[in-house]
Design goal:
By secondary structure, the protein is an alpha/beta fold. The protein is built from 17 helices and 15 strands. A six-stranded parallel beta sheet has the order 1-12-11-10-13-14, sandwiched between helices. Strands 2-7-6-5-8-9 form a six-stranded mixed beta sheet, with helices on both faces. It has a three-stranded antiparallel beta sheet with strand order 3-4-15, with no helix packed on it. Strand 8 (about 215), helix 9 (about 220-230) and strand 9 form a beta-alpha-beta unit. Helix 8 runs parallel beside helix 9. The chain is globular and about 80 Å long. The mean pLDDT is about 95.
Length: about 425
């Protein structure tokens, strides 16, 4: 049982050993032992070879459900709609409001096909098409996540995906809010299946679950490893690690607000990482005091304490410019600029999954209803990847329509470059167009 007293150390950015200590805290390599990988590989192969039978077997083993047919794991649309209609009025309004905002935001992301013409009559462009069938994995380990159902499925629906298959561990056991979210997201097929076996079913297909084109959604280490192993058979959105929040403060934010924002990430998981950077040592001390004051009153205080003590980080920077540079080094999933003039810093932020401007933009609002998807790059992946969105569920095909004149104008260039690569057939194929 983790200790409830918080061990909050402040690292000084100017200290000689700062870089080494920061790197140690940011060691976010996905350290997966060989036993886990082999176990997941075995599950994937079993489902690939034996379909529903293996899926049922692993569901009984890992989820503890006594099931003997896929019918008992299948949740139809009538059940989803019934869950939505049975919600208390206030909860239903909140869920609908969140869904509406998520849809409105992602409608702005939708890309259209385009073309342009050249003087010789050639036409070039890009055709944008939606994926045909997508699988979404909604986690259900330490908590249930109806918000993730909306954040994953609505961008896919806005993109024009033809069919959405969703899996949720133990979805039919006290997860009425998840089922209601599935109804609002217009899920076509919903299964009470979790873990690596759910990833296998969507990646390879079984007698009951059709193979999908792409799988999106975070999960535990077994789900993460499974997604890595099936990539290539299907597409995946990203490899998600524990959730992260970095808060940059200038001393103007209420320490209680900052403390609770840090806790909002820490309560997800013991491996979650909450970091605060400020140029004001007194403000950091005030935030630490607020954390100690509020922790005992939180239901998930044990998880929070473990997360903060093991992964939490307080950094004292010389100024806000240095604070932003440190944040860029961290490349956090979520970044809060809890300062008086956040837009002055925004242009200096290069690496962050989502950026929350100002003291009122709590990260928790982004988790539920601000609009952007909360499925974001973690573990430093914000250096090279983006938030999940409509583009993740669309394909872009190049269009090349050469006129006779256009082909002639390109043939000599293509042939010259082809022979430079010692690909003679390429060169001749281009030069044949010179004959008209």
């Amino acid at each position: 049982m983790p200790q409830l007293n918080l061990d909050i150390a402040i690292l000084h950015a100017s200290a000689p050993d700062f870089a080494e200590r920061l790197a140690a805290k940011l060691d976010r390599r996905m350290l997966v032992d060989a036993a886990i990988t082999e176990r997941v590989r075995g599950i994937l192969e079993a489902v690939r070879e034996r379909g529903d039978a293996a899926l049922l077997e692993h569901t009984r083993r890992f989820d503890g459900l006594e099931v003997d047919s896929m019918a008992s794991l299948t949740i139809d649309r009538e059940a989803m709609q019934a869950a939505l209609e049975a919600l208390p009025a206030a909860t239903c309004r909140a869920l609908r409001h969140a869904a509406e905002r998520i849809r409105r935001y992602h409608e702005e992301q939708r890309q259209d096909s385009w073309q342009f013409s050249e003087d010789d009559g050639s036409v070039y462009g890009q055709q944008v098409t939606a994926l045909e069938r997508v699988g979404i994995y909604v986690p259900g380990g330490k908590a249930s996540y109806p918000s993730s159902m909306l954040m994953l499925a609505i961008p896919a629906r806005v993109a024009g995906v033809g069919e959405i298959v969703a899996t949720v561990p133990r979805a039919h056991q006290g997860n009425e809010l998840v089922l209601a979210a599935a109804a609002l997201a217009e899920i076509d097929q919903l299964y009470a299946v979790g873990g690596a076996q759910a990833i296998a079913a969507m990646a390879y297909g079984t007698e009951s679950i059709a193979k999908v084109d792409k799988i999106a959604g975070p999960g535990n280490i077994h789900v993460t490893v499974a997604k890595k192993l099936v990539f290539g058979e299907v597409g995946i959105d990203m490899i998600a690690g524990p959730t992260e929040l970095t808060v940059i403060c200038d001393g103007s934010a209420d320490p209680d607000w900052v403390a609770m924002d840090l806790f909002s990430q820490a309560e997800h998981d013991e491996q979650a990482q909450s970091i605060v950077i400020a140029a004001d040592a007194a403000h950091l001390e005030a935030v630490a005091a607020a954390m100690r004051r509020h922790l005992p009153g939180l239901e998930r205080r044990d998880i929070i304490a473990a997360s903060i003590n093991d992964r939490g980080l307080f950094i004292l920077a010389d100024d806000l410019v240095e604070a932003v540079e440190l944040s860029n080094r961290i490349a956090p999933e979520h970044l809060e600029l809890a300062v008086q003039n956040p837009r002055q810093l925004l242009g200096h932020v290069r690496h962050a999954g989502a950026i929350f401007l100002g003291r009122h933009s709590a990260e928790a609002l982004g988790d539920y209803c601000a609009g952007p998807s909360h499925v974001l790059p973690t573990s430093g992946a914000a250096r090279f990847s983006s938030a999940l969105g409509v583009a993740d569920f669309q394909k872009r095909s190049s269009i090349i329509d050469c006129s006779a004149e256009g082909a002639v104008s390109l043939a000599a260039t293509a042939a010259q470059l082809a022979r430079g690569e010692r690909l003679e057939a390429h060169a001749r194929a281009a030069e044949l167009r010179l004959r008209g």
